[in-house]
Amino acid sequence: MYYYSFLVQFAKANSPQFTTLTQLIDDAVDHYNAKSRIAANPKEIVEISIKDPITLQIILQSTNKLEVGMASKALRTWSSYLVNTNTPNNLSSYVIGKRIFKMIPSSLTSYKRQSNQCNKLSQSQSEPTQGLSSTPSEGDENILAKLDKIYSKLLELETKIDLKNTL
Question: What's residue 156's pLDDT?
């Protein structure tokens, strides 16, 4: 099995915080996992957690190896469910330029699954920064440290861009 981590944020400014969307996102995970079981390359969202109010972390398991640069496409069914007009409380009004999310994918060297069921948002809110496992390997710690640095840099860039746009 191969594992991938995604940091996910809305592409559109002034979007809702993920803390207010837990049920909808959990429903999308259930939909994704059910659809993916019958795919040529079965994949499963095994963990999803809120890193901060505007950032989700998704852990995806894939039977076959994915190109890291293209791994975000593996979540298309998940995001499509969220914007589908037939989905109750859908997020279609937050689509901008045919995108609802911006994602940063990375490959994980290892992952210790906590149980046979996905760790959903409604189950993980008390531990919003819960990462890969209770005993991550040195490689996982390096990846998480790098992802945190990337995330910090993105927030800095976003702030600079917002300041330039207001001037």
Answer: 73
